[in-house]
Amino acid sequence: MSFSWAKKYEPKHPFMKWMDERLPLPRLVYGAIGGGYPVPRNLNYFWNFGVLAGIFLMIQILTGIVLAMWYFSSVDGAFNSVEHIMRDVNAGWLIRYAHANGASFFFIVTYIHIFRGLYYGSYKAPRELVWMLGLVIYLLMMATAFMGYVLPWGQMSYWAAQVITGFFSAFPLIGEPLRVFLLGGYAPDQATLTRFFSLHYLLPFVIAGVVILHIWALHIPGSSNPTGVDVKDEKDTLPFHPFYTAKDGWFAAGFLALYAVVTFYAPNMLGHPDNYIPANPLSTPAHIVPEWYFLPFYAILKSFTVDFILPAKLWGVLAMFASILLLFFLPWLDKSPVRSGAYRPIFKRFFWILMVDVVILTWAGGAVPGPMVVAVSQVATLYYFLHFLVILPLIARYETPLPLPSSISESVLHGEAAESAPAGSRRRGGSVATAE
Amino acid sequence: MGFLMAIPASVMAFIFRLGWVRFILGGIGLVLAGILLLSFVVGIADALRNPTEETAQHKLHEHPKALHLASDGPFGHYDNQQLQRGFQVYKEVCAACHGLSLVSFRDLHAMGYEEAEIKKIASDWATEVPSINPDTGEAATRKALSSDRFPSPYANETAARAANNNALPPDLSLITKAREGGAAYIYSLLTGYRPQTAEEVREFPDIKTPQGLHYNPYFPNLNIAMPRPITSDGQVTYAPGNPAPTVDQMAKDVAAFLVWAGEPKLNNRHSAGFAVVLFLLIATVLGYFAYRNVWAEAKRKVRVTGALDPANQAKTRRAKSKQGIAG
């Protein structure tokens, strides 16, 4: 661990001592999520969503493994096997709804986690690799979620496979062969379904592996914090356990209650009715839309409507990929030395404009396309790219940030030193009581 | 000359100040922005030149009527009496054309039928189950058993289309989950048939109901192949003690039955959900107090001279009492 005051693992039980000398696994866990990981003491509740994302990954893997015991990846049997799970398998309806809604909630917590990183500058040095590994996880999640959505082989499953693999055919020359290679045929069929099932089962474990790298890279500089000020000494931090396990614990239980409300009382709210119609290659749904978590990207894709040098579709596909890939360059686009948006008055405003922009893109991605919707999504897409590629570098150059607190403990304990002084004494704020 | 040289030099200085990465990415951003602006302008110009006319679907398609069922809401459970009435409507009206291929006869147990009743329902079912002749191996049919799924009225899609003017009556197992509006849509569709007004036809000549179709504003395409299935009050005779079988009542009942057919485990789901949410809320509250407890402890340990330091608290108390401040 990076901080010299991080507590060392001291096995108490003779067995743990014996174990520690041979395979220091308890030591690893202690240093990663136990008392041996010092965490800034001023984290707010937005810092709970990383742990929640880990919880949802585990929920998805566990429910997914059980579903795979009953699911039958055949174009003739997939749809009915899902209905068999829903109707005849003991608690199958629960496992399946938990998995389907678990995917949505995994994205909800991941989006909050990403936007927290954007606001508090968590992507900045020395955490660039934490950020980039996180983006890799996000890309893997998108691939996994997309392939999982295809598995029930309903109408939206089939047409999502058709449309999304169709993106690749936009590329000149290699496009069409690439699409055929990915599908294992000229249209989504048995080969597609089987390989998607195989990959859908594989990728979550790849995600788990990258999560380990993500956490490892995080533990070198340690967690960021809402002030963005570096940890200076021991009084700036608290051991992860019991402080943050306690904070994450109750928050996770509360968030899972929300997840349970949706899973038990509105399990189809986030889905699409058409996916309860078995896949039919001869009947195109009137309005093909991806799952809600892909809608902003779908809006970006559809915003490019003019063949200018390249075909409009290729521009759309390039822009869609670029919209995520540009995030990998964020540490070098935003060179402001101040991490936290709380101390960046101009950045903060543009950040909230970006939030509104993403909400508009989500709406535009799901709306029935008309001239009005397309125009709105074009403006929103325009802002998305300008925000990251033009506005952010310029803000970093011209903004005057607010004065930073000199340390985390000062920002946390401001006023408390005065408060703790005997009533009647004249001491006011400013200096901080130091820990012994 | 020097003036000309100054431009690239200042551009170079700008690039240098900005950094190559930002310069290149900013360039990409501006290119995409340019294409988007072009798309935007062309799109707007196109929309102005060819204003989209309001389509008949947009104008005449109606949202489903409100429908309240016993299964609605977090504490909703099926009304078995209603499900049985709805099943009767399905059996006597819908089953002539629509399958229920994901539901088994034995599932009827969940809505209050006894085993003997279910056996009788299965063996009396109008369509028999495909089978083979045990002596010759030729295709044959046999009476349904309670373990069978509901047999579909047509052998295959081609037969279904041939019998229905090339329209395919959809399987109803999941119909309330597969249509926008769910049960309310089914109820509205069944009660929504009406003649087209002359005014509607005048405004949108395209939607004039063709031969063999039927006008129904709740159907997305406005003209539906299915003729009005529930035509008159008393079409189905309900057992004594049930509400009068009006068209409206029968439509409601069959909609309720089809919700059950799509979601047979709803009762379990609602009950289990209550227990799970309650458990998690209790865990949240207990966890919250544990968290407060852990952190209060932390503040004393980590920051011995803080406000929570017993010594300071004692000092504060003393000073306050000396000055006569309460609390």
Largest sheet of chain A: 2 strands, antiparallel
Number of strands of chain A: 2
In terms of per-residue confidence, which ranges of chain B show pLDDT below 50 for 5 or more consecutive residues?
300-304
The name of the CATH architecture of the largest domain in chain B is Orthogonal Bundle
Number of folding domains of chain B?
3
The end-to-end span of chain A amounts to: 23 Å
Quantity of strands of chain B, as a count? 4
Read across the widest sheet of chain A, the strand sequence of neighbours is 1-2
Question: Averaged pLDDT of chain B, please?
Answer: 89
Tell me, briefly, the overall form of chain B.
Answer: extended
Distance between the termini of chain B: 82 Å
Instruction: Estimate the global geometry of chain A from the Cα principal axes.
Output: globular
State the CATH class of the largest domain in chain B. Mainly Alpha
Assign the CATH class of the largest domain in chain A.
Answer: Mainly Alpha
What portion of residues of chain B belong to β-strands? under 5%
* CATH topology call of the largest domain in chain A: Cytochrome Bc1 Complex, Chain C
* Helix and strand pattern of chain B: HHHHHEEHHHHEEHHH
Oligomer: heterodimer
Please provide a written account of the structure.
The complex is a heterodimer of chains A (436) and B (327). By secondary structure, chain A is an all-alpha fold. Chain A is 61% helix and 1% strand. The longest helix of chain A has 30 residues, at 190-219. Chain A starts with 13 loop residues before the first helix and ends in a 16-residue tail after the last helix. Chain B is mainly alpha-helical and 327 residues long. Chain B has three domains: 2-52; 59-103 and 149-264, Orthogonal Bundle (Cytochrome Bc1 Complex, Chain D, domain 2), CATH 1.10.760.10; 269-323. Chain B has helices at 2-18, 20-49, 56-60, 80-92, 115-124, 157-163, 175-178, 182-191, 198-203, 247-262, 266-302, 310-323; strands spanning 129-132, 139-142, 214-215, 223-224. In chain B, the strands form two sheets. A two-stranded antiparallel ribbon of chain B has the order 1-2. Chain B has a two-stranded antiparallel ribbon with strand order 3-4. In chain B, strand 3 and strand 4 (223-224) form a beta hairpin. Chain B is extended, with a radius of gyration of 35 Å. The relative contact order of chain B is 0.11. The chains are: A mainly alpha (436), B mainly alpha (327). Chains A and B meet through helix 4, helix 5, helix 10, helix 12 and helix 15 of A and helix 2, helix 11 and helix 12 of B.
